[in-house]
Amino acid sequence: AKAAGRNRYYSFDETLSRKAAMTRDIERDLSAALDEGAIVMWYQPILSDCGTQLTTLEALVRWNHPRHGFIPPMDLIAVSALAGLSGELLRHILRQVAQMIGVLRARGLHDIRIAMNVSPRDMTQMPVDTLVLDELAALDLPPEMLELEITEEIAIDPAAVRGKLSRLADAGIRIAIDDFGTGYSSLSALQTLKVDRVKIDKSFVRDLSASPVHQALIDAIMRVSQPFGFDVVAEGVETQADLDILQKLGCTIVQGYHLAKPMPQDDALAWIERHHQ
Ligand code: C2E
Ligand code: CA
Ligand code: CA
Ligand code: CA
């Protein structure tokens, strides 16, 4: 039975072993890629006033592997954890984000923030507060120019992150809850975590015009967020129709391909020149 099974699933096995080989390749090349600067940040605008006012750029990690091509960020994060390089990757991303903040400040663009994603694993296991505050202090950068995006999973165990988040928030760093609506956290749990904004997950935003249920959900998120004073951001805005509905629902802070795609740093700076006064 085992032999028959092996035959029947031969191509499946092959795919698995190819995946394993690819993971090994990526693991092996990751450390060099970090040293050589092959892992870079792209930046996607987040706009307020229904997409007219640039407030934030979200930093999104990009690695174009010489043989395997573009590695999805989630795979990169997972492989770096397997390779024991999570800390290296986090520091690398933080350095690049800090460098971008320095560039913005040098151009007098103090009112634009950079939002950096931190994985739940790093948030709970790494001294993220100290790493972030030390990096900003070393370069004499204002904490107000940095925002951290963490997924709502962390609200499941608030005790593990409360101290770090409150230290970061007290220093002036903004906290955003990413992928909101996909987990089980309540807004009141988030309130105890010094959260400034929630980002409605893109799965609820895409095709909004065709989904009364998602419209009702966003409406509800808007209503319950208000008393807490959270900003609400809609990510994944892909069409004008979606943008129009968000405006009707009172959700005016938006991000998505319809407004601007993630761009390499130089393109993002050129984009700012054209769109920001
Ligand atoms: P996320 O934080 O929810 O980021 C939004 C993702 O949606 C990004 O994918 C972005 O390119 C994509 N996106 C933006 N606008 C649209 C749109 O209109 N439609 C659609 N369909 N997608 C849109 P990306 O860059 O592939 O990142 C995927 C995820 O990987 C991120 O989801 C985040 O969880 C993680 N990630 C990315 N960069 C980093 C990083 O530097 N550190 C950590 N820890 N995680 C990261
Ligand atoms: Ca994010
Ligand atoms: Ca998100
Ligand atoms: Ca996500």
UniProtKB/TrEMBL annotation:
Lineage summary: Bacteria, Pseudomonadati, Pseudomonadota, Alphaproteobacteria, Hyphomicrobiales
Organism the protein comes from: Xaviernesmea oryzae
Residues in EAL domain copies: 23-276
Protein name listed in UniProt: Diguanylate cyclase/phosphodiesterase
Span of the entire protein shown here: 376 to 652 of 653
